Amino acid sequence: MEIKVDLQQLGTSFMLKVEPKYTLFFVKTIVQSRHYIHKSNQCLTKNGHTLRDSFTLSEYDIKNNDSVTLTISGPSPYKPYTIYYKVDGKERDSIEVMTCHTIDYLKKDIWYKTGIPVKCMRLRYLTYLLESGSCIADYNILPESTLSLEADYS
Predict the structure, then answer these.
(1) Which residues contact 4 (CB under 8 A, 6 or more apart)?
(2) Residue range 5-50, pLDDT digits in tens
(3) Which residues does the UniProt record annotate as the domain Ubiquitin-like (predicted)?
(4) 81-151, what's its fold?
(5) N or C, where is the chain less crowded by C-beta within 10 Å?
(6) For residue 87, what are the β-bridge partners?
(7) What DSSP character marks residue 39?
(8) Domain boundaries, the chain
(9) What's the CATH number for 2-72?
(10) What is the C-alpha to C-alpha distance for residues 105 and 111, in angstroms, rounded to an integer?
(11) Full-model pTM
């Protein structure tokens, strides 16, 4: 079956192929993989009622061609914003990112600005070591945040 997902904040909608047995958490996972909106930034509602992640579409009586509303919290995945990075705790510079950007993409952008080889970079945000294959949304890196960049040439 298909459901219509309305993104009121962006003034658009899309159809999503689903099964009645899918939980809302799984539906959010599908939305994340196709539209780069991290699960933790998604709130699904129907008729003004928030849909809980652990319930299935059938438990909410959501049928073929029904509509649900998706509200995005946090930065929009489609709108760039500025974050900062400090190289070895010294110089601070800014970079434009989107929540759907990967850490690899971020490192390449920093390489263009600093000349530090990607393989020598260790990026940290709060207590997290930012891993290749992850995206900015996975770490909930917000606008104006500062990352620590350690250059390890060994």
Answers:
(1) 13, 14, 15, 16, 65, 66, 67, 68
(2) 998 777 889 999 999 999 999 999 999 888 878 888 889 999 989 9
(3) 1-77, 81-149
(4) Ubiquitin-like (UB roll) (3.10.20)
(5) C
(6) 149
(7) G
(8) 2-72, 81-151
(9) 3.10.20.90
(10) 10
(11) 0.60
What CA–CA distances, in Å, run from 8 to 29, 62, 110? Answer: 19, 19, 34
DSSP 8-class letter at 102? B
Separation CA 48–CA 70 (nearest Å): 11
Fold agreement between 2-72 and 81-151: yes
Q: 3-class DSSP state for residue 130?
A: coil
φ and ψ at residue 39, rounded to 5 degrees = -50, -40
Residue-wise pLDDT for 130-152, tens only, equals: 998 888 888 888 899 999 999 98
Instruction: Specify the length of the chain in residues.
Output: 154
